[in-house]
Amino acid sequence: MSERRPVTRRDFVRGTAGAAMGVSLFGVGWAEQATREPRSATVTLVRDQRALSASHEVDVAVLKEMLAETVTRVTGKANARDAWRALVTPEDVVGLVPTPHLNPTHDEVVAAVRTALVDAGIPADRIRLAQGGPGKAEACTALISLPALKAHWLTGIGTVLKNYIMYSGHPSHYHDDNNDRLGEIWLLPHVKGKTRLVLVDALRPLCDKGPQPDPRYLWDYKGLIAGTDPVAVEAICLKIITAKREALRGEPWPLSPPPLCVQMADKRYGLGTCKMDEIRLERAGWAKGALV
Amino acid sequence: MAGTVLARAGVAATVTGEGAMHHQHPASAVPAVPSQAAATVNLPQTADAWRRPKALRRIEAAGIFEYMDGAGELYLAYRFDHLDVVEYASPADGEILVELYWMRTSDDAYGLLSGDWGGEPVVLKEAGPPGGPRALYGAGLLRIWSGDLYARVMATRESEASRAAVLAIGRAIVAGRPDPPPPRLVTHLPQTAAALTLRRDRICFLRSHLVLNSVYFVSQKDILNLGKNVEAVTARYGKARLLLVRYPNAGVGRTAFERFRTTYLPEAGTGEGGAARIEDGWAGFRLSGRSLAVVFEAADREAVTSLIATGVHALETLEASHE
Question: Do residue B263 and residue A176 have CB atoms under 8 angstroms apart?
Answer without folding.
Answer: no
